[in-house]
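Write out the 3D structure for:
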Amino acid sequence: MKIAIKTSVITLSALMGTTAFAQDNTLTINSFGGAYEDAHRACIITPFEEETGATVNVVTAYSADAFAQLRAQKDAPQFDVLHFSGGQEIVGASEGLLAPIDAAKLTNAADVYDFAKANLAGGEGPAYSIAAIGLVYNTEALPEAPSKWTDLLNPDYSEHLVLTDISNGYGMLGFLMLNQVQGGDLSNIQPGLDAVTQLLDAGAIIVSTSPEIQQEFAQNDAWIAPYASDYAYTLRKAELPSGFAQGAEGTPASYITANLVAGRPNMDLALKFIDKEISPAAQECFAEALRYSPTNSKAELSSEVAADIAYGEDGVKGLIRFDPATIEANRTAWVEAWNKTIAR
């Protein structure tokens, strides 16, 4: 998707070094680069600028980096709206870096699913998109879609199964779901590690990045991989037969949230931007472009797009959010245990 963009892109250092901004009609946000940022501009940023006459300055910064900058700037924040995909809003709100949001100031809030706006008053911004983690599969090798997470343990799949390292955020969520269906929880990941050992012994492989998943599907007879909903679409665009299935036991979810930074002069304008992000039109556009799940119940998608994601009341009721704070607190120990398990 190639779109002519008028939005100005600046580095954060340039932003901090100038005092010439018209603060009353300018916002500074982060986005995640690449195809995501292209869609962010097309679906939200450019329409918002055209509708309001505002200028949106974009700093390309992924969640962890954006949060680190927010902390570093706590006495003089430079962002107006920050987007996170790793649960950083939970910590940011608890530290007072993010401002509470009055749902009454968001015209679209009433139509957003409850789980996506659970703590607005506490400073955790709404989820405007969801990356659902399920089973990406080869539709030619498996004309009948897998339907359960326990299908990963099917011996017929063993030599055609691709797992993703838990250093990858989606890989972590897929592993935690495998751990859960094997009887584990966030206080005990050993059942998941035992399952990984079993799968590797049977012929499964582990990759670290999404392009490696594509390579395995294209060249090495991969049939199934626990990964994000948008990736089945990525594979199809590469002319690889692929589909996405939600496991009956539940669907791990990465919440992509829009958060109001505390202590900024343009909070009303920032709220209008966040309101734009949770609108049906913006979320329909995101789903079409990237295959992320809408959180606005009024978003209407074609059957083709809906097949690739967790969609509608039935689709989202199975979403599971593993506590981001617990994941972050245990990440180092879990990665160490994982690395010992896969060493062979």
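Residues 12 and 92 are 19 Å apart (CA to CA).
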